[in-house]
Automatic annotation (TrEMBL):
<dbReference type="GO" id="GO:0016491">
    <property type="term" value="F:oxidoreductase activity"/>
</dbReference>
<dbReference type="Pfam" id="PF07992">
    <property type="entry name" value="Pyr_redox_2"/>
</dbReference>
<protein>
    <submittedName>
        <fullName>FAD/NAD(P)-binding domain-containing protein</fullName>
    </submittedName>
</protein>
<dbReference type="InterPro" id="IPR023753">
    <property type="entry name" value="FAD/NAD-binding_dom"/>
</dbReference>
<comment type="similarity">
    <text>Belongs to the FAD-binding monooxygenase family.</text>
</comment>
<dbReference type="InterPro" id="IPR036188">
    <property type="entry name" value="FAD/NAD-bd_sf"/>
</dbReference>
<keyword id="KW-0560">Oxidoreductase</keyword>
<keyword id="KW-0274">FAD</keyword>
<keyword id="KW-0285">Flavoprotein</keyword>
<dbReference type="InterPro" id="IPR050775">
    <property type="entry name" value="FAD-binding_Monooxygenases"/>
</dbReference>
<feature type="domain" description="FAD/NAD(P)-binding">
    <location>
        <begin position="73"/>
        <end position="299"/>
    </location>
</feature>
<keyword id="KW-0521">NADP</keyword>
Amino acid sequence: MTSYQDEGLLAVDALQVEQRYGEERAKRLRPEGDSQFIDISHSPEHQSFLDDPWVDPKTIKDVKSLFPDGRCKMLILGAGMGGLVYAVRMIQAGVKPEDIRVVDLAGGFGGTWYWNRYPGLSCDIESYSYFPLLEETGYVPKHRYSYGEEIRGYANLIAEKWGISENAAFQTKATKLVWYADSKEWTAKLEQKRNGEQPQELDVRAEYVVTVNGALNWAKLPGIPGLLDFKGDIFHAARWNYSATGGSPADPSLTKLEGKRVAIIGTGCTAVQIIPHLAQWAKQLYVVQRTPASVDNREQKETDEEWFHKEIAASPGWQRERMRNFHQHFTPEKQPEKNLIDDAWTHAQGLIGLTGTTHGPKTPDELPAYIKKLRELDLPRQNRIRKRVEEEVHDPELAKRLQAWYPSWCKRPVIHADYLTTFNRENVTLIDTEGKGLDSITSDSIVSGDKSYPVDIIICATGFRAPFTGTPAEKANAAFIGRDGISMSEAWGQKGPLTQHAVLDQNFPNLFLSGPWQGCNSPNYLFGVDTHAKHAAYIYAESQRRAAGKKFAVSPTPEAAENWSMQVAMHSLPMGAIIGCTPSYFNVEGGLDQVPPEMQMIMARSGLWGSGIEDFIDIVEAWRKEGSMQGIQVEV
């Protein structure tokens, strides 16, 4: 790893920065860890925060009509972009679209792009890389960074193009899956709750199940005393209430905020996009901050179609090569000659701490030196970002409070052109809680320390359940019961996953997974899902060929699953950079630091492939090319 700054000067600065990082981290550590948040899906008294403001009841099919004989060939849990990509890869592998059923709690396709429709919503990964299947659809994204409405429209385009649109059970979830070895199929208990109707349950049989429940899908609230006492409008950003603010997903004219006092809780990726729009319309905006965002600049532009076809999509396989180039900027051993993307992400080499590297530590003793080197590599970028705050925020004291003191890999980096300058407005007040959060909420105010701020509207931009915790079953808020009646939560809790390449678990045949457990990670999370989907589709197609028309159960052999689990553990040390980070969902609000010794091996076996996503892809592609399906058993 190379640093682009004089090492003598850097050493002095690095010591000071490391001390400051520790001080700021200490402010955010709380003994209750992740339980400081309210997981809305598990809290009956907060269920109204999950009401769907977008659903059109007339478009929701009766779940029973989609399963006339109580069966389907392939059941996909999740109608987001990941679920759609998985469906397409399976269709390309030979599954007929009419044999697929997609299940989702939402009222339409899109996943996070269905739920999130707040003003300013856009993707932080450039659209030419983020949009999947661009070569197959021929679609040209309208902007370098696409806005939410366009992405949601693209999800519907995929569903239409591949014949998935009519095969979705919306406002429906799977509450339990049970594997039946004799018939080689799963029974899924589905529950549909359509607006204004009594819930109905249905048991369906499926030969194969795919679980793609997304990275950030279960909204959470801050556990602030008095949250439910507030008498004004209060909502989570993932359920934006335009009836209270004015405007619409297509028109962020928040006219109803004129004359209103608004508080937004949170300063993460979501809040950074929302805040400039609130400031434009509200009489007074209070921004409640625990940890400052690390905000780099974003250079947005419209896409010129002629340029796109000439410079971007000029040859077959261009999108894969573009993603390879993107990843190589976090892979010190494979730095590209040319930066095809040239944005804030590709100038953030410190993100190696999130993606992993083959040049990482091989023993625990090497971890401290590795983290030290990562911090040296990362320091010029973070210094530049802190300098940007000083340049754009006029008040020097306010600028200090908006500077981020943690490494790039500790929180998802934010890119935005207008966030920082918003704090120069007279109607915007930063409530810096020094890592603690608000003390309480009353019927008409928010309270921080000894100050009370009367407000009319509260917006909770407080994120989602930590994406890399639990199991796929818990991500789905469901029970998965596999071989010999073992639950996934029990099995993974005892030994961690037992997968082959992250897509099939030995105890759960015919259940295709989407990662990230024991798989790859990319800042472009959707690319990681597609990587797993392609691999699963190959295994499905090859298993079909070998079964010669008979029903089959496909899973890793016990030996292969144990071997892969140990390989994941052996390659896990580069991911240890997250230990000691400022609390965030990446480290479960500091909870990873507290894992007892007897659980550390399970955590290592359950983690990400620590040698980086391109190394993972090299392994699975070589495995497919070899062609023997080594480690996979197909039982007929």
